[in-house]
Amino acid sequence: MKKLSPIKLAAFAAFAAAPFALSAPVMAQDAPQTEVYVGAQGGYHDLGNNPLGKDGSPIYGLFAGVDVPVGPTLIVGAEGNFNLGSGIIDSEYGATGKIGVRVGQSGQIFARGGYQWVDVDVRRATGVNAPAGFDDTSGDYLVGVGAQYKIGTNTALRVTADTLGFDTTRVTGGLAFNF
After folding, report:
1. How many CB atoms lie within 10 A of CB 137?
2. pLDDT for residue 56
3. 8 Å CB contact between 94 and 100
4. Which residues does residue 173 pair with via DSSP β-bridges, in sequence order?
5. Residue 159, exposed/middle/buried by CB under 10 A (0-12, 13-18, 19+)?
6. d(CA 125, CA 39)
7. Mean pLDDT of residues grouped by 10 in the chain (179 residues)?
8. 125: closest CA among 61, 60, 49?
9. How would DSSP label each residue in 137-178?
């Protein structure tokens, strides 16, 4: 068996890869690209029935994620969020996976599922101070739906509706910036 010198091997590899390298820019223009995004959101999280008082809170915060195309219209992704509350919710944070479809050139409809933790302000919720060492953070699975619409090359408006354990309702609207 004849051995190839390193120079001949490199030349052969470059020659063999040339058709793929030349067609890659054409293919890249046709295929949807992976999108990384960050954004700001605001909304309301209703925690359900609280017999001792208030049961919901306005929330506002940040989210970040990635959408990966799996075909011409199907996308899968992952997203994380952090929100502050101005009522009985001090903060909340979580992560979700999502699956969706592109609608036209600018729209997207998606479903998502994950886990969300909520830190409740016990004093505001019950009117009583929490005992020392009391853990006022609880978590549950999150399921939800959402939609977004691009209003610019790298900007999209979005709305989501979620539930935690089918006990709470959270609706948010936001603005996302794609990279």
Report:
1. 12
2. 83
3. no
4. 42, 159
5. middle
6. 29
7. 50 49 49 90 87 78 97 96 92 96 95 94 67 71 97 96 93 96
8. 49
9. EEEEEEEEEEEEEESSSSEEEEEEEEEETTT-EEEEEEEEEE
Q: How far is CA 17 from CA 14, 20, 73, in A?
A: 5, 5, 29
Q: What is the pTM of this model?
A: 0.76
pLDDT given for residue 23 in this prediction: 46
Residue 54 confidence (pLDDT)? 67
**Closest to 119 measured CA to CA, from 133, 140, 138:** 138
Do you know the residue count of the chain?
Answer: 179
CA–CA dist 3, 65 (Å, integer): 49
Best CA proximity match to 174, nearest among 161, 152, 159: 159
Q: What is the pLDDT of residue 47?
A: 86
Placement of tokens 């994950």 in the chain: 114
How far is the C-alpha of 118 from the C-alpha of 81, rounded, in Å?
A: 12
The pair of three-digit structure tokens given for residue 158, joined into one six-digit string = 């979005």
Secondary structure letter of residue 125 according to DSSP: H
Q: How far apart are CA 47 and CA 50, in angstroms?
A: 8
